[in-house]
Amino acid sequence: MSLDFHLDRANPVALYQQIAEHLKARISDGRLPAGARLPTVRQLASDLGVTRLTVQNAYAELQSAGWIESTVGRGTYVSHNVNGHSFGRGMMAPLTPDGVINDILQVNQIVGLRSMVSASPDPRLFPTEEFWSTLADLQADALAMVLYSSSQGDPQLRVEISQDLTERGIDATPDEILVVAGVTQGLALVSRTLAQPGDTILVEQPTYLGVLHTLKLHGVQAIGVPLDEEGPMLSALEQAILQHRPRFFYTVPTFQNPTGRCMTLERRHAVLELAATHGLIIVEDDIYGRLAYDTPAPPPLYALDTRGQVIFVSSYSKVLMPGLRLGYVVAPQRWADRLLSLRRATDLCSPTLLQRSLALFLRNGGLKRHLRRVLPIYRERRNTLVTALQRNLPPSIRWRSPEGGFCAWLTMPSYHPFSDLEQALLRQGWAVAPGEVFLAEPAQEKSVRICFGNLTPDVINDGVDALSYAIRERLNATTEPAIQRGNWTPLV
After folding, report:
1. Is the confidence at residue 95, as pLDDT, over 80?
2. What one-character-per-residue DSSP string does 75-88 give?
């Protein structure tokens, strides 16, 4: 059996990983069905002009993830666990933020499914050797590594975060920084500090899925503020402030999740002025602020704030690796003690070993080197996505090029049936995030979020091809099926 694909030796992705991705694509779209026999290591190495070790590594990665099976004396076959009909085990269950978050966390474990769901960095680009080499430097202080850390965060890490924040124009002392287990915990602590069950807060429409889940569990009602090309619409924001008297306004101003938009500098000043006029607290999520692809990102709202009305939340999940679960909150003093008490009551402290490892990595300039290396790669992937969307999507689909981050937002025309779009893509072996779950309030138009950060250019092109095909099928439909409101299709 011969496989028709080519390797890009100029690509920073290792050759064995390229081989694995090509094979995953063919398994997902059915060209290599369950039970199909793959070429021998020797044959594929000869066909591709690589070493047998390269093919062995590719096969080993696929086998460990369950995509293929290998038996001595029989050969290598596509696993019988690959079954497109098994992707949607809860396919008719109501769509909820909690369910979709679970799907996003699990989707990469489903054999045969390709995903544009997760707004995450590429784990293959993580500086593994450099980061974990810091562990050797910690051996001299091994006793401290097995003890509890401060609930506020390891002092050395807070010093390095303070220095790192200067890259975003923020002047914060180590004592003003609270280390948390990622942005999710930071937002949960802020929500409990500022709001009580039954209170109302404002969010962008659409907004980060995780904050909607956090607010719902806390019993807080979220009201959506629509976005235009420059950021939150000021008239809508002011009207919502006057009508609902919210406890705070949550915003992702820089490379927003899920739209990829960046609030302009002029709009940032206007939002701050409006908030000051009405005594509104702003909670700023800057998790994507370092991932700028075209021009430097504008300064955060926190850096522009002169009245102490902004709480700043960020993390190293997107610029380094999600599994660290290390983020931070910078808040004016009047809320700092309450945040620290809640942090202590929630899980006492973050792991000392990981905090100190990250501190040394930052101190040695590891993050700056990592960003210099990966930003051109992510920029190329963003450009690949934009080119593919321009080439494939019908003009009636609204979208814009993300200026940074890992997300793009596509909106369908309201006069065509798109309620089964995610389900149709699942049948093609692809998963995208349904736009409904990013909305605080229902919308008339159907949208989807697609992510590109952890996908190679070839995979991005294949994903856009599949998405475009499913969209055109629905645009060409002559009849419009009834849409059941509030009973959407989950991802998996």
Report:
1. no
2. EEEE-TT--GGGS-
